[in-house]
Write a structure and sequence with these properties.
Ribosomal Protein S5, domain 2, alpha+beta, binds ligand 2P0, globular, five-stranded mixed sheet
Amino acid sequence: AEQGQWVLMATARSPTNIAVIKYWGKRDEALILPINESISITLDPEHLSATTTVAVSPSFDRDRMWLNGKEISLDGGRFQSCLREIRRRAEDVEDEKKGIHIRKEDWERLNVHIASYNNFPTAAGLASSAAGFACLAFSLAKLMNVKEDCGELSAIARRGSGSACRSLFGGFVKWTMGNAADGSDSIAVQLASETHWDDLVVIIAVVSSRQKETSSTSGMRESVETSSLLHYRAKEVVPSRILQMENAISCRDFATFAKLTCADSNQFHAVCLDTSPPIFYMNDTSHRIINLVEKWNQFEGAPQVAYTFDAGPNAVLIAKNRKTASLLLQRLLFYFPPPSGSELTSYLLGDKS
Ligand code: 2P0
């Protein structure tokens, strides 16, 4: 590329994903390789997603990144591994109209600017790293004309954040263990597309918008070091749950899907309690939501709603269909009325001001 003022850009959007069989624990910290497989649902990008624009220009003197408009440091090893892995796979780029000719080897010395936005408040205590790193890997790959498919790109997103690899696909996704020493085969695979089981409705109940006290990365490290339940779970429980879950998804068997989802969330939080010192991600409100769902499912004689909680107190509720979802919303609003004067209350009252 000639020294000049041109700028070349690419933009992508990636949704976040919610694990129904949880990832918790690494067998390799540097490569981010999991101790067990996991399965997730990728959400609709309309609601919880990251949008990232990446740009390259000979006038950029270093790689820089902005998150929700604020510059952040790219010094962390995770950003550096993603950038390095994508640059290694970069190809020639030609844009005749703009007169841009970038040769493969030019990418090593060209710098990028990255601007990423989440369409949900970062402070809402909802995971944003999954959508963020998936989008970073995908948009950089587009910019640099990387030929790898989404599976191969998922291994790069994984180097940013483990759960990010699952956001490269829509629908139901499995993160496979892999066994290559370099981690190249620990990738995401799509189990079923977003149209396969579109009766399901996901409702996220924001219990607390405070930032969590223990980050997932350090929490899972402490669990790997101190929880014997984690090792039992990874070896004796998860492998058969993965098979049962794949089957439940393929048959759209909601009863089995819900039982496995709730059981796996509860076991993940039991592992957190089994960690020394114990990690508490759920709070009283989370426990009350579990009770509400359990009682409801028991009363109906068959599961109607599944719950799952990540590294925080917010509930992710999966309703069997739209009718159940609207009942669920009514019940949540009855038992957990939003404080008067809150945004949600004004919205529900149709307050236009
Ligand atoms: C999951 N979580 O499967 C589990 C369930 C939280 C609870 O993946 O260290 O942010 O970046 O690989 O991916 C959160 O962990 O951790 C997570 P790193 P990540 O979704």
